[in-house]
Specification:
Blueprint: H1 3-10, H2 24-44, H3 53-68, H4 77-93, H5 98-112, H6 115-118, H7 127-136, E1 144-148, H8 154-162, E2 167-172, H9 175-187, E3 192-196, E4 209-212, H10 219-229, E5 235-239, E6 250-253, E7 261-266
Parallel strand pairs: 1-2, 1-4, 2-3, 4-5
Antiparallel strand pairs: 5-7, 6-7
Amino acid sequence: MHKSFRNNLNGAQTDTSAIAGLPPALVALLVQLLALSVVLLLVATALLQQWRIYEWAVLQGLIAASISYPLKLSIWWIPIQLFFTPALVATLALALSPLWFFAGFLFIVLIYGKTYQTQVPLFFSSQEAAQALASLLPSQKNFSFIDLGCGYGGLLNKLAEVRPDGKFHGIEAALLPCLLGKFQEMVSTSDKTIRWGDFWQHNLSSYDVVYAYLSPVPMQALWGKACREMRPGSIFISNSFMIPGIRPDKIVELSDFTESALYLWQIRKDTE
């Protein structure tokens, strides 16, 4: 993810806004249907009648990916659109039992939770991000830190190793990553807790630092929640994604493979 790509992600607040605010997954499906219609039309006009089905699938993927970009679907939808139909054709060719598809569906739900609803993919904070965060943590002992959408708690583990004097918390809505995090919590000696739940329902008033690595979609609403609940003097940190219209107090560029940045805002009495 180069800086231009990061800017594209930050600008994804308008994702699918050109199509009456439809959910991205629905837009992606409609694009696939449109691409299929184009392929079927070409087949009906004898242009592709000599092609094999996997060649039709590749063409449909190319058409769907080409349509998705001008419709302002987020950048990660492009490879999904490109490989969806070829992967479907390849899977059908294997003649797998329907139980495998059901098991795959359950596995995806357990890992990603309600990503289709929240529009927040599964991101992992890099080692460089963890090092930068460690240098930004409060100097006093027993400070409290929470990671909103902590996954399996990898970032919390790294920070707790560097700052054992802090109290680290995480909240995760996806069940399987949360269970993995809870297992690590049981075998760890650091002051770290991970809970399963919706961070929108979790009060942020008891934390000195609130960290989020989400997506552009929830940032405006999350800033409103932070302003209502966080104490003056506490710090809100976002990895990669800006709050629209709110200039950060500090930007820490990261030298990881994403070339992303940490954006910091200090909560004040007059913060809005």
